[in-house]
C-alpha cells in the first residue's frame, strides 16, 4: 500500500507491504483485494523505487479503511 500523498512527487515511495497470510493484529488493518482478505503490514513501512518493486494497482481505500491504517500507524510509530 502506498502511504505517500500524491502531492509529494519523489522518485521513491513510502509503502506498507500487504499479506494474505498474516494473523490478525490491531496494527495490521484488514482490507480486501479482489475479494481476498489482505492485511496491511504497517509495522514494516519502507521506501521503494516504484519502477522496480511495485505490483499492479489494486484500488483505493475507503475512508474507514484509511482511518484504520492511520490508527495502526499511530500505534506502531507511537505518534499519540
UniProtKB/TrEMBL annotation:
The lineage of its organism: Bacteria, Bacillati, Actinomycetota, Actinomycetes, Propionibacteriales. This is mRNA interferase MazF. Keywords: Toxin-antitoxin system. One of its GO terms (molecular function) is DNA binding. The keyword Membrane does not apply. It comes from the Bacteria. Belongs to the PemK/MazF family. It comes from Tessaracoccus bendigoensis DSM 12906.
Amino acid at each position: 500500500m502506498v502511504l505517500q500523498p500524491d502531492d509529494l512527487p519523489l522518485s521513491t515511495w513510502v509503502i506498507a507491504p500487504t499479506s494474505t497470510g498474516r494473523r490478525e493484529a490491531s496494527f495490521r488493518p484488514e482490507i480486501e483485494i479482489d475479494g481476498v482478505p489482505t492485511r496491511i503490514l504497517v509495522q514494516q513501512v519502507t521506501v521503494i523505487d516504484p519502477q522496480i518493486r511495485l505490483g499492479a494497482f489494486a484500488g483505493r481505500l475507503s475512508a474507514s479503511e484509511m482511518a484504520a491504517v492511520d490508527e495502526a500507524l499511530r500505534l506502531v510509530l507511537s505518534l499519540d
